[in-house]
């Protein structure tokens, strides 16, 4: 649960001031790590038929926005070049390790990660949980391919570099910058299939806004839960997400367990609910040491522990306000430390 600390009125007033671009004489060093997505995508026709994410390289992205050199000394590298629906645990680990290497370099002031928007909310939160230090790590992408009319990628990249290079953005954890908005990776979700106004932080709201390279941060950095050192990890525990619905049976739960899942996230109906058959099956599963987390398929709200489901008795964990994708990332990391549902509940409550 994110408990926002009380802020003295004077501190709040100061924090609402536009922090503006970094001084021209001291341009920050911002490194771009490109992973693909629509921001690097090309379309075959104006209606996006035959469109392919992850077509252009990081060099083309940088060259497409010559104004970047006015606000930062920008360098780049291509980590992978994939549509983000193909994002996976191996790339997550590779990315977290690379970000930690880069951030340990005193010459790097901030990092921008370009990423497809489909799973951006998951990867950015995974890095929030696994990247050390307080330098800005800013995720961005675009909803329109680079070749589209009025492509949104160039401005998103420009604004992201401005935020990543700004010392005022330190300590916020991973951030997501698109459509002139600054979101905390912990809180942000994609909400619309095609609109450029798709990212929302429904529970905690925006961290700030950015107007053509001028960020305004609304308050002090939100508190962050503990981070996880993944430097020695070569794989993450298997966690599957199961979607609840009318007539939900046990078929997919049994299949996930047979496939070796160590944790299950249920995208429950309403307040993390599901059929009696599913509850009974999951209670059996929890007794075997597999961690069961009740989340919700709804876009907003917190799953309340021991409401209609007796979580204490059944040995379940509730996801707080984490929706299934972010809950999966957190559970995977939590499982590297413990499989005790009481301890894992504390982890969910403190992030
Ligand atoms: N499916 C693509 C991806 O996530 C397109 C979405 C986007 O980047 O906007 O990479």
Architecture blueprint of SSEs:
Blueprint: H1 9-15, E1 29-36, H2 58-63, H3 68-71, E2 73-82, H4 89-103, E3 110-114, H5 120-130, E4 137-140, H6 153-164, E5 174-178, E6 181-184, E7 189-190, E8 199-200, E9 208-211, E10 214-217, E11 239-243, H7 251-258, E12 263-268, H8 276-287, E13 291-296, H9 311-314, E14 317-318, H10 324-334, H11 341-350
Parallel strand pairs: 1-2, 1-3, 3-4, 4-5, 11-12, 12-13, 13-14
Antiparallel strand pairs: 5-6, 6-9, 7-8, 9-10
Helix pairs in contact: 4-5, 5-10
The structure holds glutamic acid.
What does this structure look like?
The chain is of the alpha/beta class. The model is unreliable at 5-17 (pLDDT under 50). It is globular. The protein has two domains: 24-217, Rossmann fold, CATH 3.40.50.1170; 239-350, Rossmann fold. The protein has helices at 9-15, 58-63, 68-71, 89-103, 120-130, 153-164, 251-258, 276-287, 311-314, 324-334, 341-350, and strands spanning 29-36, 73-82, 110-114, 137-140, 174-178, 181-184, 189-190, 199-200, 208-211, 214-217, 239-243, 263-268, 291-296, 317-318. The protein contains eleven helices and 14 strands. The strands form three sheets. Strands 2-1-3-4-5-6-9-10 form an eight-stranded mixed sheet. Helix content is 28%, strand content 19%. The N and C termini lie close together (6 Å). Glutamic acid binds at residues 37-38, 53, 83-85, 116-118, 141, 143.
